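Standup notes, structure subgroup. Blocker cleared on the glycine input:
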Amino acid sequence: MSGPNPIRRVCVVGSGGREHALAVVLGRTADVVVTPGNPGIAGGTAEGHIITCVHTPAEQIEADLYVIGPEAPLVDGLADRLRAAGHLVFGPGADGARLEGSKAFMKEVLAEAGVPTARFGVFSDPATATAYLRTLPAPWVIKTDGLAAGKGVLVTGSLDDAEADIAAKLSGDAFGDAGRRVVIEEGLTGPECSLLVLCDGQRLAPLAPAQDFKRLGDADQGPNTGGMGAYSPVPLVDAAMVDRLVDEAVAPLVGTLRARGIDYRGVLYAGVMLTPDGPKVLEFNVRFGDPEAQVVLPRLDGDLAGLLAEVADGSLRTEPRFLPDAAVCVVLASDGYPEAPRTGDVISGVGDAGSLEGVTVFHAGTADTDTDGVGTLVTSGGRVLGVTALAGTIGAARRRAYRGVSAISWPGMQSRSDIALAAAGVAP
Ligand code: AMP
Ligand code: GLY
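Run returned:
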C-alpha cells in the first residue's frame, strides 16, 4: 500500500461553517480553494498557505484532493463525476450518499445490517400513515424521506400535530417532493451524540465525539434546526462507548454497503441516542456534521489533508489524534430562522470576536455587500456565524465562545445561551 501522493492543493466544495472549518484546518498543510465559499474563508494561513474562494465548478478546478462538504452535491453524484475524471475524492458516490438522500433507504439498510435503531414504517398514503401512527406511544416522530436541510423532522407529544404534519408532508405542501414519502418512528429518549467516522471503503477511523443542539431555544425548546451549537469532547461518550458505536453501528453498516457493492469513501456521521436500552442510531449522514465539524476539526492534532487523502485513496492507516483541549461552538442565526430567515441585516463585531484568545468565527450565511465602495458584511442565510473557542476545559471554552458571541450583533440575531452548559458542569 503506497498511499496517496503529497497533497499540495485541496478543493473544498460548499459555502457553510463546515466548509470554513475544513478550509482552516486543511490550510495548516496545503493550499485550499473553496467553491463557492463565503466572505469569511479567503486569506492566508499562519503556515504560509493560501485559502481562496472561486465560483468555478469543482470539475474545472485543478487540485490534488477534492473534499465535498454538503449532502446535496454528493446525492447528485459530484464525487462520481470527479472520480470518473481521475481525481482523488473525499466523499461517497451517489450510491452511498443515498443513505442521507432517502431516510427510507437508510432505515432499510440499518435493519438489514442489524444496527440498533428506532422501530419505523415508511408511508406515502395519509390513511395508512395515520393508522400506523396510532399504534405507537408518544412522542411521535415524523420525517420526510428526502433531503430537507435538517428541518424535515417533527417530534411531538400531540397526536393532532402529528396527523397535521403527516398531511402537510405527504401533500407536498410542506417540503415538496422530499415529503411525499414519510418515515414514522417510535420516539426514543436519552442524550444524543454525533460520532463522525472516516471510512476508506473498508477501514474505519472514528473522530472525537461531539454533541449538537438541534432545537432553536434554550432547554431544547422550539423547532428543530440544522444545529444551534456543539461541543467536543463529550464526557458521556468515552473511548469504550466510541468502540461500541463503531462495532455495533458503523462496522455492520459498512459491511452491508460493501455487500451491496458500495465502496464508501468519506465520512459516516452517526446521529446516536443513548437510550436506557443502549445506544440507537437516529440517522446516518454522509458528510461532516455542521456545527459538529466546527468543534471536531479544530481539535485534530495532525495533517487533515493527508488523512482525508488516505480515506479517498482507500489506504487509511493514520489514526486520527485529538488535542486534549475542548471546543465549544455557538451558532448565531438570523431573525426568523428556521421558518423564514431574514437576510440583509448588517453584522457588526466579527473582527472583535475573532481577535479574542482562542476564538475563531466561522462564517456560514454571510455576504459582502458593497455600499459606495465600502464592504459591509450582512446576513445571507439562516445560520449566519459559528463562534468556536478552544480552551483547556469545556467550561473555559464555553466562556470564551460566549465572550465572542457578546461582541457580535445584528437586528434579530438569535442564539442559545445554554450550549455545553450541562457538560461544563460534569467535565473535569
Ligand atoms: P434526524 O435528522 O433524523 O437526526 O432527526 C433530527 C432530530 O430529531 C434528532 O437529533 C433528534 O433530536 C430528533 N429525533 C429523531 N428521531 C427521533 C426518535 N426516533 N425519537 C426521538 N427523537 C428523535
Ligand atoms: N448538526 C446536524 C447536521 O449536520 O446534520
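Discussed briefly. The chain is about 30% helix and 30% strand.
Next: hand off to the docking folks.
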